[in-house]
Fold this protein.
Amino acid sequence: MLWVVLIMSLIAIFQVPVLLRQKQWGELLGFSALWVIATAYALMVALNVPLPTLLEVLDFVYGSIFQLVKFFSP
């Protein structure tokens, strides 16, 4: 787990100042959002947290959308 924190911190240390210096606010926001998601996922994998497979996630998302469409259709 220490390796995950170290590597993700190094990525942020090298990327964020460049984006700030160039005033790329949109890219900084996008990078930050993806960095937080990637860090959370990497920490969960490092801690052996049981995670759903991609197929399970897609099934949940599309199943929810299908139920909404079915609910609002005449």
